[in-house]
Amino acid sequence: MGRVLSVASECVPLLKTGGLADVVGALPQALAGQGWEMRVLMPAYRSVLPQAKGWPVVWSDPDLFGGPARVLAGMVAGISMLLLDAPHLYDREGGPYSGPRGDWPDNDIRFAALSWAGAAIARDGLADGWRPDLLHAHDWQAGLAPAYLAYSGAAVPSIMTIHNVAFQGFAPVSQLAALRLPSDQYYPDALEYFGGLSSLKAGMITASKITTVSPSYAGELRRAEFGMGLQGVIMSRATDVSGILNGVDTDVWSPENGPHPYSARAPKGKTLARAALCAELGLDVPGPLGIIVSRLTDQKGIDLIPQIAANFIAAGGGLAVLGSGDAALESQMRALEARFPGRVAVRIGYDEDLSQRLFAGGDAVLVPSRFEPCGLTQMYGLRYGTLPVVAAVGGLADTVITANPAALAAGVATGITFHPTDAPAFDLALQNLIRLHGDSKTWAQMVKNAMRHPVGWEESAARYAQLYAGLTAA
Q: Which domains does the chain have, with CATH numbers?
């Protein structure tokens, strides 16, 4: 069908700080099945560059925002990768966005360079003859790519995908020239953003189409409490905005691949996985074991956990927490573990193997997010038959069929949703979880429903392919 250049700041398996990397890494294979060839352009950070040893140079620039740069092409885990090697921007100790002393102060320049290279490749192609038919930019780090493409007058269409509108790539107006943006476009309906600049807004106003990572999030972004200053842009481009759910890699996240394999048809292994997990974490939980695999932030609703934990545990529940984030919330999680030994286990940090064991052995996954563009955690829960208990926002609302009387009567419920995102509503949802867990027949049906719910990329990839086809045909 065509060729797509995907521009992003991270991609599994090379580098991951969150769900963005999972999505960027999954799309190429998912779209290959729809007839689209995708290459992924990302920075060659210090930790990533060794993977590109011996790769050919397919693009270069003697002065990419302050220094020479080149793009190296190669394959990683079946993904066709393009790594932007610009040592003056990316050869640094630390993560992709920050170092030992916090966020890199030149992040605006660093990711403008990524966007500039993406736009140049989309416009002119690569030295090996590859030329994309479409550019797909992800989040603020790639937001200037559609802008550079549009302002150059190139006819290549582009898509701007918003994974999380809370991160907007703000820069002062004094950076306008340094970012190579046209001064005549600095006005409210174009680049100006609250007296400064936003790379995300720049992408939203110049891209051919805008997507978000769930249908509900696309609707929520029209409202001030979710749009976070960009709701007006979403409204002005309403006919060009669509929500396409993310998917998960069902080969990686599979209950059939664990040490105690199980499936919807043969669920007994989940009991063994639960026993093994409780033994590993030192837990003895008579009721449902709720797991939390999350960044520990207020956005994720983690501050609600201490408010509801006592009631949940008194009713027989238990908690297993894996994550890191806000220091105060980390401390509160540790305090819960000390207060309820044998019923609460906390592991600070991120461990993907432990994460998979938690999904295999847990009874429910708790996701009380205040906003959630899509969310992958609840999809992992569905895949493993670990019933999601989620706030009814964004992609959480789109993927979980709540256990209300109608859904239970029809035998289709896959989890529990609650609204609003506050402690009383969350507490009520957990009491409902306790009740459902005590009804073995209903619980078994919900587990089967959850595991049979499609969470892979097939449907979403088809929607992206349809969008691509429409743009390239036009």
A: 2-247+458-473 (3.40.50.2000), 255-452 (3.40.50.2000)
